[in-house]
Amino acid sequence: MIAAISLMRRQDSVSLAQFRRHWLDVHGPLVCEFPALRRYVQCHVVDSVAMNQAARSMRIDGFPILYFDNDQDRICAHRSPDMAACNVDSRQFVGAVSRIIADVSGDLRSNAGRFSLIEIWPDGASPAARPVHYHVREQGAAPSSTIAHLRVTAGAVTQTWYDSLVDLECAADIPDDSLAARFVVEEHWLA
Fold this sequence. Notes:
Elements: E1 2-10, H1 16-31, E2 39-45, H2 53-58, E3 62-68, H3 71-78, H4 81-90, E4 94-106, E5 115-121, E6 132-140, E7 148-149, E8 156-162, H5 165-172, E9 181-189
Parallel strand pairs: 4-7
Antiparallel strand pairs: 1-3, 1-4, 2-3, 2-9, 4-6, 5-8, 5-9, 6-8
Helix pairs in contact: 1-4
């Protein structure tokens, strides 16, 4: 399976509440129209004691993750009129974005918990074992987008799910000396 993961920062003139509402109610349904889309989840970053300074300094507000069976399906979606409509809509609320294309390995479950810990690992770091590992193949600007490119480099991305924010924070309370930027997200599965 292939994942297209975006790292999104909202526009300075858009409140966090406006960003989330537009992303869920307006932008989300547009993405759901992509041809060959297998799954789509919006990961909304939430403030939590489990986030570290590396994550806070990146100022990322969300991670949309689109799943495809293969590269041909992903390319078909990215070249579709539906993607063009998303690129136009993105100008309403997204200030900067970076896109990661990754191979997915691990236990990607459809009934995962509502909260997850997303870790962005720098180049050369050895990610700790997590339920899902996104092996980064390429990273850059979003395809055909006029949104500013968010200059964040990821060597790998990992994800771990929890049933509640309390469960996540308790698990993350264990000292972790990793180099990863640790983001706490609330998930919204749309497709």
